[in-house]
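User: Hi! I'm working on a homework problem where we have to compare a predicted structure to a textbook description. Could you give me the structure for the chain below?
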Amino acid sequence: MGDTGTQTGGTLGARFKAALLGLQFRATCGVVSLTFAVIAVVCWLFVQTTGNLTGQLQRHQCSQLSAVLAHAAAEAMERGDARALTALAEQFTASDSLLFVRFFDAEGTTVARGLAGAAQDGRWGGSTPLAEDHPLGTPVLVRARDDFPAYLDVTCPINKWSDRKQRGTGDRNSSTMRPSALLGYVRLGLNVEPSMSELSASLDLVSGTAILLAILTVPSGFILVRRIVEPINELSGVTDDFASGDLSARSHVRRTDEVGNLALAFNRMADLHERNHNQLVALNAELEERVNRRTRQLRELASRDPLTGLYNRRHFDEVLSRRFAEARRYSTPLSCLMVDLDNFKSINDTHGHQVGDELLVLTGLTISSQLRAADVAARFGGDEFVVLLPQTTRRRAQTLSRRIAEKLASTVHTQLPEVTLTLSIGISSLEYVESDDPNDLVRTADEALYAAKTDGKNRIVAGDPVS
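Assistant: Happy to help. Predicted structure tokens:
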């Protein structure tokens, strides 16, 4: 009886133990299965995120490339320089990243093109008319066909850029470049086949990894869970950093399995994007420098007199205000010369306007040759010139005036011997001007010039103080 009870208790204990083992086994299997399912979902989300990120980066890159090409080709398109456009297209299609580049005029006629190797060896017909159904500036994915790889197709307008004044700013010279006219279009095809192949391979690797994990034993499953989850989390974090703008983010996973291959594929994709991004940044910097240089040239031209090359009156007035304020603030000398050609109208009527223009040019060159870097000479109007002399007293201004008159007389006698030319010069100095109006300095010099003219011309007269 006791033996029977012992056997029954042993049997119940064995059954209970077996039930516990079974429950533990099922719980373990459930945990492992749930873990595998979570891993599978994480892998799927990672692939989707990577695919979406890659697509967004490629579209962004494609749009930037088209905009950069449009800016780079604007000048050549405006000139109608097909050779320069062809060279630009061939430069961008030298690598396999761009399959083709085509430039069209405003009517949609092809002006120049560049084809990569896939188009040149006959696998592509080469016909890329301007696609009217594609929105401008928006890349459209064209699937692979006839052994021709998949690519992003984008068309971008090429505009003429003009310099316009900005309103609401204190700087009169403040300006911005804005499109003013449509010159044509640029259409390009960005090869996305390598990225799509890498993503497809990565997806296959992740799927194989999930299947392998599903058939492993419980202990191996837990080990594999730990080995896979950690690098995937690391790679996911790197992807987030990369998507947030850190283009130097790279995976440090060093493995030979599927996850390692996925990390290598991501790193290759990141390297390619960073290289293209750096090229775009460099090209954008070069274009900005060209625009800034051209803007400076235009500003300089706008402040110059087209005949003599001296500054115009508007620029002189701006410099006068600054130099006058500085001289008053620091109590430094400042002088002004008003120069006028004697009997210029008679010379112009006798020898013609061409000789008159030559005299004006010689006068401007002579004045400039006698000045320092800080001095400013401008054509005041007609045959009158004005010179602003910072850090210059009245006595030094008189010496400079005599030197200018002598130098001009000698130059005219050598180059235009048939002409007799003299100068009348009026001088004003800040030390004798009591007003705080910069224009009074010029007005005093002008009154001195008038006195020189009245007293018989060919004279240098210093003006009286202005109260």
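For your comparison, note the following. The radius of gyration is 40 Å. The chain is about 55% helix and 15% strand. Good luck with the assignment!
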